[in-house]
Amino acid sequence: MATLADLPDSVLLEIFSYLPVRDRIRISRVCHRWKRLVDDRWLWRHVDLTLYTMRPKVMWHLLRRYMASRLRSLRVGGYLFSGSQAPRLSPALMRALGQKCPNLKRLCLHVADLSMVPITSLPCTLRTLELHSCEISMAWLLKEQDPTVLPLLECIVLDRVPAFRDEHLQGLTRFRALRSLVLGGTYRVTETGLDAGLQELGYLQRLEVLGCTLSADSTLLAVSRHLRDVRKIRLTVRGLSAPGLSVLEGMPALESLCLLGPLITPEMPSPAEILSSCLAMPKLRVLELQGLGWEDQEAERILCKGLPHCMVIVRACPKESMDWWM
Questions:
Q1: Where residue 197 falls among pLDDT bands split at 50, 70, 90?
Q2: What is the pLDDT of residues 133-182, one digit of tens each?
Q3: What's the burial of 10, exposed, middle or buried (CB within 10 Å: 0-12/13-18/19+)?
Q4: Which residues have a Cβ under 8 Å from the Cβ of 26 and sit 6 or more positions away?
Q5: Which intervals hold domain F-box (predicted)?
Q6: Which of 171, 177, 99, 97 is nearest to 139 (CA)?
Q7: Quick check: helix, strand or coil at residue 294?
């Protein structure tokens, strides 16, 4: 019978990659071979530290000993709700990430107090920045800030960031490489603010508006006015009507449309009305309806038959329904 010792390095590395960081370090003490594998660059490309309340000393050790130039993406928690004595993300740590991890492309911050962390301290190599339940200072994303900050940033996810408001949305225009924007639960953004913000973000190719107070109709109207090159739209169906959906007809670049429930109102377009609008979207290739309760029903059959050129996905909301950014 084969044992772990008989497995090739590539298989063991794949197995080790599923272990939490703490367990990876522990298994490095098993034998010289496992220590060598735990030191492998491949194993430290993507690191998730959200499982731990990480003391600054331990975080600095991981940064110097294991991550450094190997790191491509990092998920870390800030312990916003862990008490006043909990460790905090610091500007020094953010600057060190930029200096010691030149290949870091994606940074996901969870439940972090960033009010004392200037955006200028974030690694300039970032292409994706995700903020989940984070506190930011009012000055973080305003237009008046240094326009050279995060010059490569292509995607920003703002999920339940209570301070984010209309002024911040308009301030995103300084990220000239930005192509993807996800707004989740940003309840301070108004319909007027969204329209004004998208007017200056006409180069976006992907927009997701999820769990906000904005109506779907007003969101789609702003999209149709200002985002003519958008390729992917994902939004909750709150306030969606057939006339509201019809404003997307003729959108020249739209390839993927996702409508998420579970809130369905009497104004919600019928399957036939959705089909009619989708047939008028020349580039549409993916239609996803999630959480509308239409799976395995006549609605699904109508859409699949009427859109043979599209991948039609009709499914229930996943258990992790708040993971909008995945």
A1: very high
A2: 999 988 888 766 677 889 999 999 999 999 999 999 989 998 999 999 99
A3: exposed
A4: none
A5: 1-47
A6: 171
A7: coil
- For the question of whether the overall pTM of this predicted structure is more than 0.70, the answer is yes
Sheet holding 206-210, edge to edge: 46-48, 73-77, 106-110, 128-132, 155-159, 180-184, 206-210, 232-236, 256-260, 286-290, 311-315
Phi, psi dihedral angles at 259 (to 5 degrees)? -115, 125
Query: Residue 325: pLDDT above 70?
Result: no
* CB atoms near residue 267 (< 10 Å): 15
Question: Which phi and psi angles does 16 have, rounded to 5°?
Answer: -60, -30
Q: What pLDDT does 7 receive?
A: 85
- Least confident range from 4-13, 119-128, 215-224, 263-272: namely 263-272
Superfamily of domain 44-251+263-273: Ribonuclease Inhibitor (3.80.10.10)
Q: What is the dihedral of CA 189, 190, 192, 194, to 10 degrees?
A: 40
Each residue's pLDDT tens digit, 73-120: 999 887 654 455 555 678 888 898 899 999 999 999 998 888 888 999
Q: Which CATH architecture has domain 8-43?
A: Up-down Bundle (1.20)
Preceding peptide of 243 cis, ω within 30°: no
User: Three-state DSSP class for 135?
Assistant: strand
Q: Which residues, in sequence order, are bridge partners of residue 183?
A: 158, 209
pLDDT at 304: 92
Beta-strand pair 106-110/135-136: unpaired
The backbone torsions φ and ψ at residue 61, rounded to the nearest 5 degrees and listed phi first, read -65, -45
DSSP code, position 173 = G
Where exactly are the structural domains of the chain?
8-43, 44-251+263-273
User: DSSP H helical segments within 141-239, as ranges?
Assistant: 166-171, 191-200, 216-226
